[in-house]
């Protein structure tokens, strides 16, 4: 990997990296399940399908929602919503996601401003759909901080495939070796490796250090530690 002080581009995952995963998506899951469930048993069945502990109101560590795409989640819910088609379920997921409350992992605006002032190109690569992703970034007032934003439906595919990251490099005219992928899941790190980027793991998602460390160049508590790692602080 290129030395930290020589890095030219950073691609961030969104959920669990820019925004705290649990604070955002556990509220989303509760809202979605309550909206569609016909009774308590129905809610429990749907929660089980997506790896959500309804009693504890939290996701299981192996929940497919953590790194999955809306289309994949819709397929899991489809057997429990026989009156709806998968595209309808996916549309509802995206609409509810756009309304999900966002909890910043760290104060984002000053951090991103610091990174941009150092001449770094910044991108977002998320397995969320582009529309709710843009809504989330706008709600934090940080959309303009990014040079590149890609959801799973933006034409580059989703992670762990490297298409979004290669799209960033192409758009910014950067070599992958001069860029890093920052994320909270193995999907993020796998995409970074496949793209030829350095990989930084953060612990603001559901995965722990023991799971992430073997696949990352470094593990940081959160993205607020990036300036120090880059030698900017």
Task: Characterize the structure shown.
Helices cover 42% and strands 12% of the residues. It is elongated and about 55 Å long. The mean pLDDT is 93. Strands 5-4-1-6-7-8 form a 6-stranded parallel β-sheet, with helices on both faces. It has a two-stranded antiparallel sheet with strand order 2-3. It has 2 domains: 144 residues, HAD superfamily/HAD-like (Rossmann fold), CATH 3.40.50; 78 residues, no CATH class. By secondary structure, it is α/β, with parallel strands linked by helices. The protein starts with 8 loop residues before the first strand and ends with a helix.
Note the topology.
Layout: E1 9-12, H1 21-36, H2 40-49, E2 52-53, E3 58-59, H3 70-77, H4 86-99, H5 108-117, E4 121-125, H6 130-139, E5 148-150, H7 163-172, E6 179-183, H8 186-195, E7 198-202, H9 209-212, E8 218-220, H10 226-230
Helix content: 40-55%
- Tally the structural domains: 2
Please tally the helical runs, counting DSSP H or I stretches of 4 or more residues. 10
The overall pLDDT average reads 93
Shape: elongated
What can be said about this structure in brief?
This protein has 233 residues and is α/β, with parallel strands linked by helices. The chain has helices spanning 21-36, 40-49, 70-77, 86-99, 108-117, 130-139, 163-172, 186-195, 209-212, 226-230, and strands at residues 9-12, 52-53, 58-59, 121-125, 148-150, 179-183, 198-202, 218-220.
Key terms:
6-stranded parallel beta sheet, single chain, elongated, alpha/beta, 12% strand, two-stranded antiparallel ribbon, 2 domains, 10 helices, Rossmann fold, 233 residues
């Amino acid at each position: 990997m290129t030395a930290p002080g020589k890095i030219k581009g950073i691609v961030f995952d969104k959920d669990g990296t820019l925004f705290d995963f649990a604070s955002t998506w556990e509220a989303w899951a509760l809202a979605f399940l309550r909206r569609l469930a016909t009774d308590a048993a129905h809610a429990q069945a749907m929660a089980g399908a997506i790896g959500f502990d309804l009693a504890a109101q939290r996701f299981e560590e192996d929940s497919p929602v953590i790194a999955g795409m809306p289309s994949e989640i819709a397929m899991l819910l489809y057997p429990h919503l026989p009156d709806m088609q998968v595209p309808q379920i996916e549309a509802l997921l995206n609409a509810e996601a756009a309304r999900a409350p966002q909890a910043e992992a760290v104060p984002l605006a000053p951090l991103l401003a610091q990174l941009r002032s150092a001449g770094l190109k910044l991108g977002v690569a998320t397995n969320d759909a582009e529309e709710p992703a843009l809504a989330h970034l706008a709600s934090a007032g940080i959309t303009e901080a990014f040079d590149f934003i890609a959801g799973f439906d933006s034409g580059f595919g989703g992670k762990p495939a490297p298409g979004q990251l290669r799209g960033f490099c192409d758009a910014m005219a950067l070599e992958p070796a001069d860029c890093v992928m920052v994320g909270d899941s193995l999907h993020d790190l796998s995409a970074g490796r496949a793209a030829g980027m350095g990989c930084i793991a953060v612990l603001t998602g559901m995965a722990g250090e023991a799971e992430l460390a073997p696949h990352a160049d470094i593990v940081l508590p959160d993205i607020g530690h990036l300036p120090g790692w880059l030698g900017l602080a």
